[in-house]
Amino acid sequence: MTTAIWWVRRDLRLNDNDSLRAALAQGGRVVPVFVLDPTLLAAPDISAKRLAFLFGGLRALDANLRARSSRLIVRRGEPAAELARLVAETGAEALYAEADPWPYGRGRDAAIAAQMPLRLVPGLTAQPFDLILKADGKPYTVFTPFSRAWMALPLPAPAQLWAPPERLPVVSEGLQSQSIPDEPALPPTVPFPPGEAEALRRLRAFAAGATAPIRGYADDRNRMDLDGTSQLSPYLRFGMVSARRAVVAALHATEVAFDATASDEPARHGAETWLNELIWREFYMMVLYHHPDVLEHAFQANLRGISWRNDEAEFAAWCTGRTGYPVVDAAMRQLVTTGWMHNRARMIVASFLVKDLLVDWRWGERFFMQHLLDGDPAANNGGWQWTSGMGTDAAPYFRVFNPSLQGAKFDPEGVYVRRFVPELVNVPTKFIHEPWKSPLEVQRGSRCVIGQDYPLPIVDHALARERVLAAYKGW
User: Which CATH class is domain 3-123?
Assistant: First the structure.
């Protein structure tokens, strides 16, 4: 009987898993394997919360496998060496894994493929990130034409959402497996239970039904005070739900909203907007695949020489949520506490760091990776380069978010700010986004004296805006 190894990486699920499906198609034994890579575990941008979420996802995957008579084999060590040992122990004829655009992963896979029959299977994205090219064979650098090309391909359909058999091949009891680490543990402040079951539950809650949040997504997604987003990004990051299943859900919600007799245009717009965000994820995967140097440098070469201030005290204030700008501080505290940050807030704090403080965008990119559950090299890099004006199809360099106006627009009652900045809980809504403007008697009545209980702004936004525009223009 043939034996195949299913090398689990960023696909911690059984349903709609093309690498598992390909391994099972060999018709023999399948050994599910996860390798704890010391290089990744000790990386300087690793997040303890993200590791804990990963380990929780591995435990959930192992439980799902055991329910189907299989189990997950866990090994710790350099992947090529550990997989070679497993091939020798199992007599496996092939290894199946999901292809990844990350430069480290591509180098690792190329080295392993030179020694063993490694077969990479698409599945990280709903459409192939390496094959969507312009007519001249070059990769896209602008999102809109990329999205048109993406939509022009055959779109994922429900029939493609493969389900695993009720029973999987038994893994020999003689095959040794290490324990999934218990540390670090996921803090109770993290509102994301790991695992495929929770991922599927969240997708259904967000996208299915007459009152599903996806219907209002176009309007609500920017409101930091509302639960208007899917909050699926950590699950997509580790493949606890497939990108294809998310796209199918978005397309289905679009179809449901459109009826020839009574179309629901707002609901349709909401579903189309969420689909567009999923395509942005795939766009950044494509960018990383074709331009791996973006992890080190700005995509826009003409902006690589900007003279950054890189004030370490100001950077520390940004990291700890002590800038004196409530919406910035709320967002940074949300990140450090929960391991997640609202997408609008990500843009606000990134703009503030790069353009108000004139700190190198790579400092912020690294800090995000050190704390985000959904920290993904492609999406995180793409977001930071976009906001800084240095990436593919980026926001213009002269777009500088005013943090006070952003807070007033997308957290109008200060609900988000008060949730994460308790010092400001009693500040009147009139002053919640600019508390330094409140009269002293109001500050005392709110038990929040600015400069004492909560910091004064560390920078004057108007002056900072002029400074960064001069810096970008000067270069």
Answer: alpha beta
